[in-house]
Amino acid sequence: MTEIINEQPDMTVVATAPDPLVARDLIKRHDPDVLTLDVEMPRMDGLDFLEKLMRLRPMPVVMVSSLTERNSEITLRALELGAVDFVTKPRLGIRDGLLEYGEMIADKIRAAAGARIKSAVPRYLKPAASEEVPLLRNPLVSTEKLIIIGASTGGTEAIREVLLPLPPDCPAILITQHMPAGFTRSFAQRLNSLCRITVKEAEHGERVLPGHAYIAPGDTHLRLSRSGANYVALLDQGPPVNRHRPSVDVLFQSAAEHAGRNAVGVILTGMGRDGAAGLLSMRQAGAHTLAQDEASCVVFGMPREAIALGGADEIVPLSQMARHVMQQIAKFGERVQRV
């Protein structure tokens, strides 16, 4: 990690620590812009250290995690506690593998350095009943309309905030969150335990149903398609798009092609420009499109690019996103009733 970071022209490692207790003193001494923190550390659990750090001295943290089910759960908890992002340890030899991941690691550290640090959210916080979006009570609307969401850095918590208030009869939701393989199943299960809708990892060829959210599996593109009158989810291992697989643009472009004006597109916090062109395509196809506003983003890159390209009908704070989306769905229902 030190070698990779020090090779970058715009960053340097000011210190390394073998455990959190040493790290605590080094942080006080060097006041770093970003901390990389291993999930598994001696003398103190990485989560315990992160929780104390974010309470006493909030700073941008990038977690370093192994590809195990247990570590995926810990990593998701770390994001809840305020970590900006995470990188995975490669399956290859540590030195050779990390060199292959060098560009990705550097990008994530750059994004973290400029990120807005969010307060930690209680682990199983659910919205108050007054904050929940009311039922649609129109089966036709739920069947015909779709909600399409794309996110990257900061997106796991942003997606949770969008999904939690949604009613169980809301239209089907397809989600691409930039994540490696091994983490999206835990992410979906965690959301499913909190939400009024059903949240699951998408499966190839399955029918897309109202009241369900489908998350693109890590390292796999998710596309929307049709089979007769039904929407279906398609998965593939095609080349990365905008250096990402899954790619938000891949999902958004498929929604523009197969759902058109029946879709509502949402682009949330994230670095880079993935999703900007796709959101514009959705808008041009008749979809209503929303971008998260700068003040509520951890990283404003993806929404900013979409807005600059003319892809967003509305710019909305994260706290109001679920209600704005469902208001657009309800307007569609009113038009159906008038017809």
Give structural notes.
The protein is of the alpha/beta class. The chain has two domains: 2-113, 3-Layer(aba) Sandwich (Rossmann fold); 132-338, 3-Layer(aba) Sandwich (Rossmann fold), CATH 3.40.50.180. 40% of the residues lie in helices and 18% in strands. The chain has 13 helices and twelve strands. The strands form three sheets. A seven-stranded parallel beta sheet has the order 6-7-5-4-10-11-12, sandwiched between helices. Helix 3 links the parallel strand 1 and strand 2. It is elongated, with a radius of gyration of 20 Å.
Please give a handful of descriptors for the protein shown.
single chain, 339 residues, alpha/beta, Rossmann fold, 2 domains, seven-stranded parallel β-sheet, three-stranded parallel β-sheet, 40% helix, 18% strand, elongated
The biggest sheet, with number of strands, parallel, antiparallel or mixed sense and barrel status, is:
7 strands, parallel
Helix % is 25-40%
Spans where pLDDT lies below 50 across 5 or more residues: none
Number of helices: 13
Q: What is the first-to-last residue Cα distance?
A: 61 Å
Strand order in space, largest sheet? 6-7-5-4-10-11-12
- Shape, principal axes of CA atoms: elongated
Strand element count: 12
Give the helix/strand class: alpha/beta
- And the CATH topology of the largest domain? Rossmann fold
CATH architecture of the largest domain: 3-Layer(aba) Sandwich
What top-tier CATH class of the largest domain fits best? Alpha Beta
- The CATH superfamily name of the largest domain is Methylesterase CheB, C-terminal domain
Number of domain modules: 2
Strand content: 15-25%
Q: Radius of gyration in whole Å, from Cα?
A: 20 Å
How would you spell out the order of helices and strands?
HHEHEHEHHHEHEHEEEEHEHEHEH
Question: How would you state the average pLDDT, rounded?
Answer: 89
